[in-house]
Amino acid sequence: MKDGMSMRVAVWAMTIGSLALAACSQGNGATGVGGVDAARIIAAAPAQWLSTGRTYDEQRFSPLTAINQDTIGRLGLDWFADLDTNRGQEATPLFIDGVLYVSTAWSMVKAYDARTGKLLWSFDPAVPRETLVKACCDAVNRGVAAWGNKIFVGTLDGRLIAIDRATGKAVWSVVTLDQSKNYTITGAPRVVNGMVIIGNGGAEFGARGYVAAYDADTGKERWRFYTVPAQPGTEKEPDYLKEAAATWHGEWWKQGGGGTVWDAMAYDPELDLLYIGVGNGSPWNQAYRSDGKGDNLYLSSIVAVHARTGQYAWHYQTTPGDSWDFTATQHIMLADLDIGGAKRKVLMQAPKNGFFYMLDRTNGKLLSAKNFVPVNWASGIDMTTGRPIENPQARYYRTGQPFIGSPGPTGAHSWHPMAFDPKSSLVFIPANLAAFPYIPEKGWKANKLGFNVGIDFAAAAMPADKATREAAMKATSGALIAWDPVAQKERWRVSYKGPWNGGLLATSGDLVFQGTATGEFNAYATRDGRKLWSFPAQTGIVAAPISYELDGQQYVAVMAGWGGVWALAPGILSDKSGPSRNISRLLVFKLDGKAALPAAPPLAKMPLDPPPSTANAAKIAAGGALFGRYCSVCHGDAAIGGSIVPDLRHSGMLNDADIWGQVVHDGALKDNGMVSFASILSAAEIEDIRAYVIHRANEDKILESAHAD
Known about the structure:
By secondary structure, this protein is an alpha+beta fold.
């Protein structure tokens, strides 16, 4: 065990060192009540918020001005609504004609009177809780779409449901994916040309990505666009997939290839082009996915498709041959900018890989690409070829050595929406500064449960070493970055204690709103980042706010509720911003609001009191390998749980092998999302995992005792 721990200390020392080195380097907008259509979304009346990004260009900019730098000090809570779920809340609300529509965790949808906060209706699609094992990153949902008099939601188990806006009753429901496979939906749909567009997730488990369009009136599928080719000879494929097939090798189709379209979309009505962000490979490790070679189109790409037909238009690949979970599914926004004396139609994205890209959205030509955080997997982007200038050490499967990647799979920017202020031409980016040790897993084989990524999470686990942990915590942080896309440089920055801070809203009142992992909801000055206002939300905020106007008053609304992958997987780093509980609420603010939240419940830190660790080193090591592969993504790196699911080091089940087996082997808690693992783990292996968790709890108890002394 000492040798294994020494290796992990060395790996994390490299991780910390790489981060330290890198750190050096208008109007009232009144509208009539009625159905939502393209004309209303394009007109973008300032009072309304009709689509998840407010407008088809996804700028997340409100033209309202009543709440501004002179009045922000009067902003107060007007009303709030407690939600009936304690998982992460990632949704952007919609405001349509006096009503707020929100989705919550587990794909539930609610409608509130936007004046009073009265619940008008609540819709529960009854997602089977065992679906959670197919979700990489919590039971979240990022929002709904509207068209006509319907609200549309994609559910975690893969359905697309149309809901009557007035009654909250389902109008139609279609299954959009093969529910026998490890697909999920967490993203917000968009509606274009009377078609509801939705993608899916699942590339960490084994999936072939696609996005599809469904008739808003009937739910009938109108077109489907695959992002990776099928097994040769099994399908009649269009030319764009035939061209893509030449960039793949081996038997990629066995795990689907990946490339899921799980979040970002934008639409240009004039060009009738729909822009989609494509995800990572399945598995991450390209050696297992594609014999370690090829660009693997259209992974990690921005792809334009003709919205009416779903036919391919153009693509730009941000990370050829992705092997680091560097998705291009992050927020895509459109703008018309003056560049070199000419007005250009541009597309902007800050994907996980750490570079900020600006493309000509008419043809996909790369206009600029600069890193917005320190990166070490590439030294830059070759503007002639459009390809990254890679660090050869980054291809860990070729070297056989750990690569301490900065950024890591959390991404320099994850799903949290950016915002664009057309007045200042600044883009606001919720950035993460966190590295990760990519260690290739020897002899990896896919399995039906758990992550299938080809990375050895057990070897990368945080060691029980005080100095290593403190250094890792110090090297991990977050930031709000104001980025000038034309000058390709940072204009100002707000530094945060930790990553995983909320999405952004920019307003014509020269304000930028953002929630934080520490539980604050803040307003900053657009031009220089000065903090002008703050509200204690009692829980981490990861969602993006909106602003709307009703009865001549401007409001700001945001979903609050800590969650997502950072609240689950990173172990001790989950609490970098401080222990954050989940208190799920919808918060609504206006000038001179007088409401107050109830007192926050105490957050007690329970001492570790595990049974003695009596297993031998081989049994503990075997359990650690299994825990890293199958358990750590939910229960935390090195068995250090976040605040969303139980921290197993504190579990009473550690004292009873039979009860432990009833849960892990028999699935006694499947209705809570903890399914049976009997199909892939034997009773002896499940007992090995218990031995490992007991061992880890005892290690940390010793560390805590030493710290207390």
